[in-house]
Amino acid sequence: LMFLHGVVDCEDIPLNLSRELLQESVVIGKIKHVITGKMISYLNRQAKRDPAKYEEFYREFGRFLRIGIVTTESQTEKEDLGKLLRFESSKEEKGTLVSLDQYIARAPDEQKHVYYLSAPSRDMAMESPYYETLQQNDLEVLFTYNKEDDVVLFKLENYKDRSSVRLKQLMLNQLIVINQSNQDTRRWRNRRETDWLLGSETH
User: Fold this and answer.
1) Of the N and C termini of the chain, which has fewer Cβ atoms inside 10 Å?
2) Residue 83 burial (CB count, 10 A)
3) Bridge partners of 89?
């Protein structure tokens, strides 16, 4: 949360601070964790209380939240920051942003993934062949229009036991499975034909 600036009054912090101390101090680490947690909780409350105002905040400062997810090694911190992310959705009008919690709340119980599609614009995303398959099954897709959001969802990996899946990669994986299945079928048929021919020669 690099956009935060302020003063922390703490008697346990030594007067002489060095870069090494700031990086290694257990006290500094705890203070950072507490402040970050309180700020995330505050932003979540504000987002629920006044969604329109939070969207304004997110459009201006969302980049810092995304940086936090990419740079932290803690999955707990990633998911805490993930609550604050907003994306356009195939289930909403253009310009309307939704949270990951909203996406999961209206997803079928058996759906174990958060599907997202990267595209330069909403129109191009809606026309994408990658989107068509999920649209036919009435599944919601989040749209990302910049590389930052793409990287963030990739780094987030999991959110509330749902893994984030990029549609392009999903379709490529399915093609690999289909091609492998076709190859196995061809091998099976060739083996059956070979066995039949060899069997015929013995009679």
Assistant:
1) C
2) 17
3) 142
Write out pLDDT tens, residues 124-170.
Answer: 888 888 888 778 888 899 998 888 888 888 888 888 888 887 776 65
Determine the longest span between alpha carbons in the chain, in angstroms.
97
Query: What is the tens place of the pLDDT at every residue in 162-191?
Result: 888 777 665 544 433 333 434 444 444 445
C-alpha to C-alpha distance for 21 and 135, rounded to whole angstroms: 53
Dihedral sign (CA 26, 157, 62, 86): negative
The first and second tokens of residue 107, run together, are 């997803």
E strands present in the chain = 87-89, 97-98, 113-118, 142-144, 158-159, 162-166
- How far apart, in whole angstroms, are the C-alpha atoms of residue 159 and residue 156? 7
Q: Amino acid identity of 57?
A: F
